[in-house]
Design a protein that fits this description.
The chain is α/β, with parallel strands linked by helices and 457 residues long. Helix content is 48%, strand content 15%. The chain folds into three domains: 79 residues, Glutamate Dehydrogenase, Chain A, domain 3 (Orthogonal Bundle); 141 residues, Leucine Dehydrogenase, chain A, domain 1 (Rossmann fold, 3-Layer(aba) Sandwich), CATH 3.40.50; 159 residues, NAD(P)-binding Rossmann-like Domain (Rossmann fold). The strands form two sheets. A seven-stranded mixed sheet has the order 9-8-7-6-10-11-12, sandwiched between helices. Strands 1-2-4-3-5 form a five-stranded mixed sheet. α14 links the parallel β11 and β12.
């Protein structure tokens, strides 16, 4: 490894010793950059790496709100504005008990390179709160009511609004922040600033949202994988696919895979995993989408009513199927470890397309790269969501609404460009076919060159 990179990594670990997720993300990127750092001494002379691993701004605030019983509750809110070299900060908001500074810094750091890869002018940021909309604070086993979620979102935005704007920072949704939450957040922002601007993406179609936005991350993941298969003269026809998660990313990835002739064998959530040996049907998938977005239930509930699927309580999707061609981790970070990777490889898996952010642990990534299968890191293959958010920003700026066909065509083109850029970067620096190296180098160089052009800032 380049000595400059070793020095930066040592310094990052000393300064952020209590932030394991952030350290993992930084290590994963920086350890692949030796070829490009060796080729461009200006990156070291201008301390590009030292500047890139430090957020431009970290905002942390309290979020007081009142539950349905009249009790005052307090959560912690964050916004990490990581890098604005190529555009306004852009990245989602996550509401989950797991949210902390380390998780959000890792997500923001990844977002910088992901947004760079989209070819759109967007910097990187991330935010959220440890608020849990899936657990009522006063009734065990129940979810927060819509009114509680609304009051929390309004309080959250009452602080956040002063730090964001259409040309400063444009948040979107992420884990547990969907159309309902974006609506409440947007409504409060509009009240506070007294103007209608496209400051949030993932909005409803009735107030400036883009067609295909809910589908975009899942569809984009599959489009990227389709490009990987094409490099080997293959298609998805007849491929057996396992997917983790059951939210937007997972279910729309499943939908697109089925449209392309693949069989989707698994989905999962916090209750466990379902397995359908012959592949989920369109009706099953639609029922799951309704379960997750309308009734907000669990896959355990679905399995009780569907004889064609087996339910594995508390399990993930990786060690259930007997034959696997492709795997799509679409749930959360570090959900697929070395043992899972070994199982996938042993049972025939030749493609892994990450739909979540950093879902594979370092030992799993090492196994995939060593086996030389088609493996795409999330910063490349799950960029479809933020790319379509960028398209939503364009539509808002022009006061236009594109058709679903127009948006989908643009999304497909963006995912092909990301694939081709990652492939070309890897090949240029002697690592042909290594999408990890390619995505990291391609994403890094665009941001680094913009930082060089803008001086010490």
């Amino acid at each position: 490894m380049n000595k400059y990179i070793e020095s930066v990594l040592k310094d990052v670990k000393a300064k952020n010793a209590n932030e394991p997720e952030f350290l993992q993300a930084v290590d994963e990127v920086l350890t692949t950059l030796s070829p490009v750092i060796d080729a461009n001494k200006a990156y070291q002379q201008e301390a590009i790496l030292e500047r890139m691993v430090e957020p431009e701004r970290v905002i942390m605030f309290r979020v007081p709100w009142v539950d349905d019983k009249g009790n005052v509750r307090v959560n912690r809110g964050y916004r990490i504005q990581m890098n604005s070299a190529i555009g306004p900060y852009k990245g989602g908001l996550r509401f989950d008990p797991s949210v902390n500074l380390s998780v959000l810094k890792f997500l923001a750091f990844e977002q910088v390179f992901k947004n760079s890869l989209t070819t759109l002018p967007m910097g990187g940021g991330k935010g959220g709160s440890d608020f849990n909309p899936k657990q009522s604070p006063h009734t065990p086993g129940k979810r927060c009511s819509d009114r509680e979620v609304m009051r929390f979102c309004q309080s959250f935005m009452t602080e956040l609004y002063r730090h964001i704007g259409p040309d400063t920072d444009v948040p979107a949704g992420d884990m547990n922040v969907g159309g309902r939450e974006i609506g409440y957040l947007f409504g409060q922002y509009k009240r506070l600033v007294n103007e209608w601007t496209g400051v949030l993406t993932g909005k409803g179609l009735s107030y400036g949202g883009s067609l295909i936005r809910p589908e975009a991350t899942g569809y984009g993941d599959v489009y990227f994988a389709e490009n990987m298969l094409a490099m080997r003269g293959e298609t998805f026809e007849g491929k057996k696919c396992v997917i983790s998660g059951a939210g937007n990313v997972a279910t729309y990835a499943a939908e697109k895979l089925m449209q392309l002739g693949a069989k989707v064998l698994t989905l999962s959530d916090r209750s466990g995993a379902i397995y359908c040996k012959d592949g989920l049907t369109e009706k099953m998938l639609k029922d799951i989408m309704v379960l997750k977005t309308v009734t907000r239930g669990e896959l355990a509930d679905f399995a009780k009513k569907t004889k064609a699927v087996k339910f594995f309580m508390g399990a993930n999707s990786w060690q259930i199927a007997d034959q696997i061609d492709c795997a799509f981790p679409c749930a959360r970070q570090n959900e697929l470890d070395g043992k899972d990777a070994a199982y996938l490889l042993k049972h025939g898996c030749t493609l892994v397309g990450e739909g979540a952010n950093m879902p594979s642990t370092p030992d799993a990534i090492e196994a995939f790269v060593k086996a030389k299968i088609m493996y795409s890191p999330g910063k490349a293959s799950n960029a479809g969501g933020v790319a379509t958010s960028g398209l939503e920003m364009s539509q808002n700026s022009e006061r236009l609404s594109w058709t679903s066909e127009e948006v989908d065509k643009k999304l497909k083109g963006i995912m092909k460009a990301i694939h081709d850029n990652a492939w070309a970067a890897a090949e240029k620096y002697g690592h042909k076919g290594n999408y990890v190296m390619g995505a990291n180098i391609a994403g890094f160089t665009k941001v680094a060159d913009a930082m060089l052009a803008q001086g010490i800032a």
